[in-house]
Design brief:
The complex is a heterodimer of chains A (about 110) and B (about 110).
Chain A: E1 5-7, E2 10-13, E3 19-24, E4 31-38, E5 42-50, E6 53-57, E7 64-68, E8 74-78, E9 87-94, E10 103-104, E11 108-112
Parallel strand pairs in A: 2-11
Antiparallel strand pairs in A: 1-3, 3-8, 4-5, 4-9, 5-6, 7-8, 9-10, 9-11
Chain B: E1 3-5, E2 10-14, E3 19-21, E4 24-26, E5 32-39, E6 46-52, E7 60-61, E8 64-69, E9 74-79, E10 88-96, E11 102-104, E12 108-113
Parallel strand pairs in B: 2-12
Antiparallel strand pairs in B: 1-4, 3-9, 5-6, 5-10, 7-8, 8-9, 10-11, 10-12
Classes of the chains: A mainly beta (about 110), B mainly beta (about 110).
Chain lengths: ~110, ~110
């Protein structure tokens, strides 16, 4: 069974631009969560989607948004990029909310210049 | 809100020796999950071991085992017979049984000395 995939793996953007990251969960998994990882703040929860609905949201500004499609694939969008948005963005998938098993993708490394 | 604390930013161990990584957490919930994840330089987060809070028996996965002390809210990871491939950042994480949000510690960087 294929693992969680994230595209693109690396991305360089300039301040003020917007970016869309994609996450394809493991086949059959319906829940997708997103995390931002930075050296200063560590791993921080962005949001969680289940059955195309956002179920939970972390403490991030409205510039960060996401969505989930009927095939459970998820995208996150960051508008008006700031230098501080440079980070590794990780996606995790699980069968359902509260599932014991949750698997992470390899991440997308976003650099904002 | 739940918090997870890893008080050891860096640890080192000789190859073939045993090392223990510490983790404490704070929660008012009675049932939850605890995890140890490993993140090598490749950045892929890999599940090492997990524990359900209602289970008193400590989880074990080959060379990896945990010491789960629910009353003390402590969840340490023991790595036996350390190997060079164990070198990585290790994160302790908490998750409620009703949601999917992980609460991560700040990580412990483990170096394995040949």
């Amino acid at each position: 069974k294929a693992g969680v995939t994230q595209t693109p793996r690396y991305l360089i953007k300039t301040r003020g631009q917007q970016v869309t990251l994609s996450c394809s969960p493991i086949s059959g998994h319906r829940s997708v969560s997103w995390y931002q990882q930075t050296p200063g703040q560590g791993l921080q929860f962005l949001f969680e989607y289940f059955s195309e609905t956002q179920r939970n949201k972390g403490n991030f500004p409205g510039r960060f948004s996401g969505r989930q499609f009927s095939n459970s694939r998820s995208e996150m969008n960051v508008s008006t990029l700031e230098l501080g948005d440079s980070a590794l963005y990780l996606c995790a998938s699980s069968l359902a909310r509260g599932s014991y098993e949750q698997y992470f993708g390899p991440g997308t490394r976003l650099t904002v210049t | 809100a739940q918090t997870v604390t890893q008080s050891q930013p860096e640890m080192s161990v000789q190859e073939a020796e045993t090392v223990t990584l510490s983790c404490t957490y704070d929660t008012s919930e009675s049932d939850y999950y605890l995890f140890w994840y490993k993140q090598p330089p490749s950045r892929q987060m890999i599940l090492v071991i997990r524990q359900e809070a209602y289970k008193q028996q400590n989880a074990t996965e080959n060379r990896f085992s945990v010491n789960f002390q629910k009353a003390a809210k402590s969840f340490s990871l023991k790595i036996s017979d350390s190997q060079l491939g164990d070198a990585a950042m290790y994160f302790c994480a908490y998750r409620s049984v009703t949601g999917n949000q992980f609460y991560f510690g700040t990580g412990t960087s483990l170096t394995v000395i040949p």
